[in-house]
Amino acid sequence: MNAGLWQDGATVLSGAVDAARDKSRISPMVYYYLAHFAGRLGQPRRASEYYRLAASMPPDYVFPFEHEAIQVLWQAMRANPSDARAPYYLGNLLFDWQPEEAVKLWESSASLDAGFPIVHRNLAVAYSHRDEEGALKKAVASLERAVSLPNKYPMHFFELDQLYEAAGTAPEKRLAVLEKNHNIILGRDDALSRAISLKVNLGKYDEAIELLKGREFNTWEGGARFNTHGDWTDAHLLRGHQRLAAKRHREALADYQAALQFPENLRAERREGSGRQPEVAYWIGAAHEALGDAEKARQSWQASTSAELARARGGGDVLSERGVQLYYQALSLRRLGRNEKVEAILKELVAAGDEAARQESSGLDFFSAFGERQSRRARVAMAHYIAGLGYLGLNEKEKAKQEMTRALEISPDHLGAKSALAGLGN
Predict the structure, then answer these.
(1) Whole-structure pTM value
(2) pLDDT tens, 102-116?
(3) How many CB atoms lie within 10 A of CB 243?
(4) For residue 142, what is the DSSP state?
(5) In Å, what is the CA distance from 197 to each residue of 229, 232, 394, 406, 418?
(6) 367 contact partners, CB below 8 Å, separation of at least 6
(7) What is the pLDDT of residue 225?
(8) What is the C-alpha separation between 76 and 230, in angstroms, rounded?
(9) Do 348 and 319 contact (CB within 8 A), yes or no?
(10) pLDDT of residue 37
(11) Are the beta carbons of 10 and 37 closer than 8 angstroms?
(12) Is the CA virtual torsion 114, 115, 119, 121 positive or negative?
């Protein structure tokens, strides 16, 4: 092409078409180049047929990246203005370095073929990265359009639920969408994991545990896109709380003991002395106490207090899972009668949460330096939750309710705040 050897290029690509076993799944870029070459060779009828074939080929896994493809696809759009695929492919090529132009191309593609789900998904991604009022709402609407179409993709449900979470959508609505499309989301671990997390959030612990047991979850290079071991722990802890409240103490103990005993299919490593051991050990102690075994209860609370906690990056150290575990260590210290550190820990949680809330109200981003990959909504909700735990430990129940309620107003899926409010009688 760059040398102007149009016939040679056409011969090579025609050979690729002839050699293809499945003529219905040839890369559309082959036909776009063939059409371009035919046009250069003065063969308009042949070019028109190639453009027709290019537009009819499946779009899956088509991500042109060569600079030369820009000219080819622009020419395709001029030659066949009704082709919805050429602007889609060109948008894929341009998005990383000309995102606004890519959005215009994708919007053109969507206007030409409103039933093309992938372009609606791409527009949702683009809108979600815009820092402007209404961008998240537009992103949600685009992905809702994508998943409403007959040709459904499990990844789109995963991404839609991420947007729902960022927008503060009610967990009930989110789970209903995923349950309605259960057979689709089974196609991806990350999509299924969103449904599992929401089942835990809405009290469907048995269903969540069965789904966690019944699948080999695969880890992702560079970090997981889901937290199945966290879901496993939450489901067992919360089911244990139900059983403890119902005086089914042995069943509660079994759940608490299972909370960090991850099955092999979850691919989750259990490391003593880290993660959520202080919380789990505290509740194991509570179950032993309910069963009348004071010595085992004491041993569990001792294990809770002696667990080392990994420090979070940045200055918001306690405004994280570490803060939750510090709270349970404080409760365990109190159970052991070692009260000298308890009040200081709880007041630290209150102070950290209150400081974050003050900065939020003043318009400052308390979290900007921490590099966390959570939404701002989730981080602010966590700050209120941590403050609420501090107040709860200090027996200031009204203030605890206020903080937990605020956390849920900001992030309706905040499992910790929801559980705490249930324990407070709300």
Answers:
(1) 0.90
(2) 999 999 999 999 999
(3) 19
(4) H
(5) 10, 9, 30, 21, 14
(6) 316, 319, 356, 376, 379, 380
(7) 76
(8) 49
(9) no
(10) 98
(11) yes
(12) positive
